[in-house]
């Protein structure tokens, strides 16, 4: 589920920018980018992200904007000199000029600039941590708002499936009559073609017809489908993280719809079943975004 949250913590002459972006994922996948001063806090940050957001592909970024008077960084002079001598030696061997921008390039080399402090003090970290909590709350609120829209959409589609189910009931009587007429026509054609009429057992044939019609009865499938739809709505409106459970329920709904289609033997009912499947596929697409 997509989400976004951004906050700024002003502390110690610095503006600490916290930005969170989330996309849907079945697991928790956190990609964090932190300045060196906060790297030892990464495990604590990840634990808080896991607690609040639970699931998703999450980009968590902290950037620091420092005032000119704030001495957050120092130059690693021995390392910078080593880089400088190496660059000059390479330039001499290749016969290339060193260039006027060698100093600015040196400052971009790994570990030339190092933080003036290894870790924030307790007061600064408390301020930044509170700002991280605010950013997570904003992200969670963003996802909740999107989730409400998804929930309304899925509820309306479940209602459509139940409405379509009601349209099947008036067709069932005609369906049974059509099946009986088809059996009767087949029986008459069989009797016309066979010469062993005296061996034909009409009672047994009637029993077979009743047995076949019973197998094609869809009363239980309709009942189970209605119950699964009601259960889906109840789980959808609960306060727990039920994305996986909703996925399982959609599988059960799909199973009952498929059974209705396989037992239908009626063009109009099968058209309704196709519409049900279409609505269910749209629900499945949305369920994949639910925590």
What would you say this structure looks like, in words?
With 291 residues, the protein is α+β, with helices and mostly antiparallel strands. Among the domains are: 3-70 and 121-144, Ribosomal Protein S5, domain 2 (2-Layer Sandwich), CATH 3.30.230; 73-107, no CATH class. The chain contains 8 helices and 6 strands; from the N terminus they run E-E-E-H-E-E-H-H-E-H-H-H-H-H. Strand 1 and strand 2 (14-23) form a beta hairpin. Helix 1 packs across helix 4 and helix 7 packs antiparallel against helix 8 (267-287). The model has no long low-confidence stretch (mean pLDDT 83).
How large is the radius of gyration? Answer: 35 Å
Number of strands: 6
**Order of strands side by side in the largest beta sheet?**
1-2-4-3
Report the major sheet: 4 strands, mixed
Helix content: 55-70%
Approximately what portion of the residues adopt beta-strand conformation? 5-15%
Average pLDDT, rounded to a whole number, is 83
* CATH level-3 fold name of the domain at 3-70 and 121-144: Ribosomal Protein S5, domain 2
């Amino acid at each position: 589920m997509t989400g976004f949250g951004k906050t700024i913590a002003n502390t110690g002459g610095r503006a600490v920018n916290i930005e969170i972006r989330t996309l849907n994922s079945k697991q928790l996948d956190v990609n964090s980018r932190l300045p060196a001063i906060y790297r030892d806090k990464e495990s604590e940050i990840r634990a808080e992200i896991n607690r609040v957001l639970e699931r998703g592909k999450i980009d968590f970024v902290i950037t620091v904007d420092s005032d000119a008077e704030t001495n957050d960084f120092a130059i690693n002079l021995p390392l910078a000199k080593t880089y400088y001598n190496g660059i000059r030696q390479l330039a001499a061997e290749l016969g290339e000029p060193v260039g006027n921008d060698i100093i600015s390039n040196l400052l971009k080399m790994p570990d030339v600039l190092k933080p003036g402090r290894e870790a924030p003090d307790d007061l600064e970290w408390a301020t930044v941590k509170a700002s991280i909590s605010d950013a997570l709350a904003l992200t969670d609120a963003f996802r909740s708002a999107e989730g409400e829209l998804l929930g309304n959409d899925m509820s309306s589609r479940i209602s459509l499936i139940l409405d379509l189910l009601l349209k099947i009931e008036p067709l069932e009587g005609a369906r049974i009559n059509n099946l009986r007429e088809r059996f009767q026509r087949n029986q008459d054609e069989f009797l016309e073609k066979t010469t062993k009429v005296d061996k034909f057992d009409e009672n047994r044939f009637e029993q077979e017809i009743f047995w076949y019609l019973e197998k094609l009865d869809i009363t239980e499938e309709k009942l189970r489908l209605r119950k699964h739809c009601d259960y889906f709505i109840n789980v959808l409106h609960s306060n727990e993280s039920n994305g996986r459970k909703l996925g399982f329920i959609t599988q059960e709904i799909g199973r009952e719809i498929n059974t209705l289609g396989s037992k239908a033997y009626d063009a109009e009912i099968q058209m309704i079943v196709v519409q049900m499947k279409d609505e269910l596929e749209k629900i499945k697409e949305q369920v994949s975004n639910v925590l």
